[in-house]
Design a protein that fits this description.
By secondary structure, the protein is mainly α. Helix content is 78%, strand content 0%. The longest helix is centred in the middle third of the chain and has 37 residues, at 77-113. It is elongated. It starts with a helix and ends with a helix.
Amino acid sequence: MKDRVRLGIWALPLSGLLSTIAALIPGIGIDPTVDPEGFARASSNIGLSNVLGIPSAGLLLIGILALYLFLARTPVDRRAFAGFLLILVGTVFFLPFIGIYGFTAPVLGRRFLSGDKTAVSAISESTSITNPTALVFGATAVFLLVLGAILLGAAIWRSNNLPKSPGLLLAVGIVLSSDPLFYYQPIIWVSGGLLLFLGGVWIARHIYTTTDDERTLR
């Protein structure tokens, strides 16, 4: 088990690295409701960026699971488990939005450039808060991700098995990556990915070098 935890925890920084790369792809910050033509011209890049977001989300869940397993049967077990579950469910609610942009943006962007000037509006209409389904899924995803990140960060902060600072980096990174205020700015996503990467490396290195005896004593 300990070897699997030590291996799985490296999924955290890998998720942050992939998220950062995805957020740096040109054109990702173009809002289809504001600049539909610009969105259409950058739709291939936007699709690629969001497709990269899918494995990034998967790696995040693997890393969070490994982190919980490391903290299991410690005084912060329940808080860490609650944080893991909330992030898991929040990610599930968030994935449809990534899929819409990842798989439909390139197709609808090509249709827009071919003359169908209403094609891109399908994306904004399906993901806008004016769409009740999108509002429920989006609001639920953001709420669960933010709450889960706070609980997980608090568990790390209160744990005697991990340094406190990377827990803060990890929590803030997850919150920024979910963009709870819907600023739609790539700098928010880049910052979230970098914080997740830095916090993940810090945590992974600590767990990788921690022996079972040291963990028991703490």
